Amino acid sequence: MEKLTSSYETMFVVDCSTSEEATTAVVEKFKSLIESNGTIEKIEEWGKRKLAYPINDLTEGYYVLINHTSTRDFVEELSRVFNITEGVMRYLTVKL
């Protein structure tokens, strides 16, 4: 049975107070995870920006926006991985 895929937009903010290599590693982890479970249509790395409000006493984060198509099951798994990954401050996935 063929799984239904939908278009999604995922934005996440990575803690950039540590090294630049650590930030890049987290971004690459999610790029490859999404690529291996769906199709990436567009990636926008907005870079380091000031947060609207402090999160864990931090005022800056590294923003990444990814448009992709994947299954609903994968989006649930992606959410689980975001929650357990050190360095991810916030994330949001919206079905388009």
Shape: elongated
- According to CATH, the fold-level topology is Alpha-Beta Plaits
How many domains? The number is 1
- According to CATH, what is the class? Alpha Beta
Strands, total number: 4
How far apart the termini lie comes to 24 Å
Rg is 14 Å
Mean of all residue-level pLDDT scores: 92
Could you please describe the fold and organization of this structure?
The chain has 96 residues and is α+β, with helices and mostly antiparallel strands. The protein has a single domain, classed as 2-Layer Sandwich (Alpha-Beta Plaits). 32% of the residues lie in helices and 53% in strands. The chain contains 2 helices and 4 strands. The protein has a 4-stranded antiparallel sheet with strand order 2-3-1-4, with helices on one face. The longest helix has 18 residues. The chain starts with a strand and ends with a strand. The mean pLDDT is 92.
In short:
It contains 2 helices and 4 strands; from the N terminus they run βαββαβ. It has helices at residues 20-37, 72-84, and strands at residues 5-15, 38-55, 58-71, 88-95.
Element layout with pairings:
Layout: E1 5-15, H1 20-37, E2 38-55, E3 58-71, H2 72-84, E4 88-95
